[in-house]
Specification:
The chain contains 16 helices and 13 strands. Strand 3, helix 4 and strand 4 form a beta-alpha-beta unit. Helix 9 crosses helix 13. It is globular, with a radius of gyration of 23 Å. The mean pLDDT is 93.
């Protein structure tokens, strides 16, 4: 049982915490629906989205008499149960007579939180909730919430948001207008390319130490410790191999054999569990083959990482992998879910296919490669036309640009930085 005095202290201190932060406006808006659940990886920016919404409300004339923000990762709230949650309303009523809008951050730390969320929704409260566990998206939780909430996934910053965090306006045409400006712009792009878009990392001069700390937190806290994994070595090997295999489908059997080849005894069911745990923690994002059967879709996906910075920690010689991972994150974020993004692999290999817009996308580091990779990517797009409807065909490169017309197929060659800045 949490004491009401402690909860009151936390609520009052959180007011100062929310207002002291300068928040970069993200693509996700909390306007339009009064009850939303934000989920995603740790440090992807969910709390800052809540901060931004609260700051907007204060600027619009609302006061803290109408707002409650609580971060359930506060150690003073450790051990809080679902039976304690109603105390939030009781404590607020002692501070104000006005009905509060509720901002409940990392609520997955309270077992049974769904019951309270359902009740306040039924009572027509405005409620915004965040959580860092993908199980909050499960059928059981959605059924428990009964359609009362809109669920949104939050990813690390996209490139336009990264530019804003570094004081640049993505819409400014002068960003690349001169040699000096383009050099500075491409320097920021290279930072984003290698170290990703976790918000707190965006302006740090030394990014690797932050990323290592974050990875260890996700790895040890959200995966190994939570699931009581004893064979930590096998888990480390698996994640390294996933980072080295970003561009290729990886079956459960092959993943098991790769880990076993290091001399570690491990079964396929254990590897399947490990991959599930990593997905739950939003460390990896599986993307499936649109040409596969349902069983193969589940067992033979491509695995992308939540952020390029994590891949940079785990693997070497990976620039082409970083490029494809970055494109995957852009697509998943833009279309709202990994379930809207596929690859195609059935006699011809195409990196991404978006059914919603009938868009086929290949990723190739450069047009001028001696190994003929660019030519193979082009031919694959042409062959795909007879198998899927393709209104738009794109090859994303690191910095090359152009338009190709081959066998009646129009192919756009777009540099990655420009592709990332498209709506």
């Amino acid at each position: 049982m949490i004491k009401s005095e402690i909860l009151r202290e936390v609520m009052l201190e959180n007011r100062e915490e929310v207002m002291r932060h300068e928040v970069i406006k993200r693509r996700i808006s909390l306007d339009g629906f009064d009850r939303q659940v934000l989920v995603g990886a740790r440090r992807a920016g969910k709390s800052y989205i809540l901060y931004g919404k609260i700051q907007e409300l204060i600027a619009a004339g609302y006061t803290w008499n109408e707002i409650v923000y609580i971060n359930f990762e506060d150690e003073r709230l450790a051990g809080m149960t679902v039976d304690d949650l109603n105390m939030i309303l009781e404590v607020h009523s002692g501070l104000s007579e006005k009905r509060p809008m509720l901002f409940l951050d990392e609520i997955q730390n309270v077992d049974g939180w769904e019951r309270f969320a359902r009740r306040v929704a039924d009572n027509k409260f405005t409620v915004f909730i965040t959580g860092s566990n993908a199980k909050m998206l499960s059928t059981d939780v959605n059924a428990a919430l009964g359609g009362r909430y809109m669920t949104r996934e939050v990813f690390p910053m996209q490139f336009d948001e990264y530019l804003k965090a570094n004081g640049k306006n993505p819409a400014d045409k002068l960003l690349t207008a001169t040699t000096t400006a383009r050099g500075e712009f491409m320097g920021l792009f290279e930072e984003y390319f290698q170290f990703g878009g976790f918000p707190e990392c965006a302006t740090l001069p030394v990014k690797r130490d932050y990323l290592m700390s974050l990875y260890q937190k996700i790895f040890l806290g959200d995966i190994a410790a939570r699931h009581r994994i004893e064979n930590v070595f096998a888990l480390r090997i698996l994640f390294r191999k996933l980072a080295e295999s970003v561009k290729q489908p990886l079956s459960f059997t092959r993943a098991t054999n790769i880990v076993a080849s290091t001399g570690t005894k491990i079964g396929k069911s254990t590897v399947i569990n490990y991959l599930g745990y990593a997905s739950e923690a939003y460390l990896i994002l599986p993307v499936t083959n649109i040409a596969d059967s349902l069983a193969d879709k589940v067992s033979n996906p491509k695995y992308y990482f939540i952020d390029n910075g994590i891949i940079s920690l785990l693997a070497l010689d990976i620039r082409t992998s970083l490029l494809e991972n970055m494109v995957a994150l852009k697509l998943i974020s833009s279309y709202g879910s990994k379930d809207a993004v596929y690859f195609y692999n059935h006699g011809v290999e195409v990196d991404f296919y978006i059914p919603q817009t009938e868009t086929a996308i290949q990723v190739c580091y450069t047009m001028n490669d001696a190994e003929g990779t660019f030519e193979r990517e082009t031919k694959a797009l042409i062959k795909l036309q007879s198998r899927l409807s393709c209104r738009r065909n794109i090859i994303v490169t690191y910095d090359d640009e152009g338009i190709l017309e081959k066998e009646g197929v129009r192919i756009e060659v777009i540099p990655a930085w420009k592709f990332l800045l498209q709506p």
